[in-house]
Amino acid sequence: MTNILIQAVLLGGYYALIACGLAFMFQVMRVINLAHGSLAVVSAYAVWSLSDSFGGSPFVSLLAVVPLMGVAGWLLQRLVLERAVRGGELLPVLSTFGLAIVLDNLLFQQFGANTRSLSPMVGDLSWEAFELPGNIYVGKLPVYILITVIVIIGALDLLLKRTALGRQIRATAADPDTAGLVGVDARRTAGIAAALACMTVAVSGAALGLRGTFDAYAGAPQLLFAFEATIIGGARSLWGVLAGAIVLAVAQSFGAQIHPQGFLLGGHLVFLVVLFVRLALKGRSLNLMHILRATGKGAAQ
């Protein structure tokens, strides 16, 4: 039992890593980025391509990919989301859905159907483990991923609460028109927020490649896990997303103990229970924007 809980917490750390970018973008821009999983796969391929071409460590390649994804996030905001938001709530969702399809098929055309992995490039780290009392072994890589997501969430939390940029981001999220009246450049702030969200996506993409294999269409499952973790934990807080990710992973792990097919079913069941409870308490309908708003109201305050 203890071993299952520890392994589930570590798995939850990975889910939180892929979810924090999705939750951050919704908190700040009220945009549900359905291309989130595909962007993580793009990052994984970028890290793999650099490491394969130059023979370097994936961690060194990640240092180059993170700023590139930041630029991609800025362009995504300026060229797609900024225009789409003017068309109502549904248009950004459809725009990012279309972007996900384009990215998936471009990756398939470029890299084919073969799977890739970053784990052979990190040597023993992919299988080394720490030994805990009680003859429990935990992988070093999942521990490092959990530490990474705690650092990222802590840094984003400090940024939002303790810096001038964070105050501008929160003001823009609450009311961009009023923020503009007090001198905040809402357009620039939204671009920075999108860049930060995509930089976290770059890290999650590297984690995806380090934990196992990925292919061109691996983005959809990542988006699903990120979305479920965000709904369970609530979009109003990134720490809540971490808690939701751990709950999701615990449900999956105990589901797997009950039945071989119970891994995904356990997570989906908890997700649906939390979802309908939240909607019932808020008196909302089964609408995608209403779902995230029911979990994220007050995020900008």
Key terms:
301 residues, mainly alpha, two-stranded antiparallel ribbon, two-stranded antiparallel sheet, globular, disordered C terminus
DSSP E strands, number: 4
Helix content: over 70%
Please give the alpha-carbon distance between the first and last residues: 39 Å
- Secondary-structure-derived class: mainly alpha
The average pLDDT value, as a whole number, equals 86
Strand order of the largest sheet: 1-4
Oligomer: single chain
Rg calculated over all Cα atoms? 19 Å
What overall form do the CA principal axes indicate?
A: globular
The helix/strand order is HHHHEEEHHHHEHHHH
* Count of runs of 4 or more consecutive helical residues: 12
Largest sheet: 2 strands, antiparallel
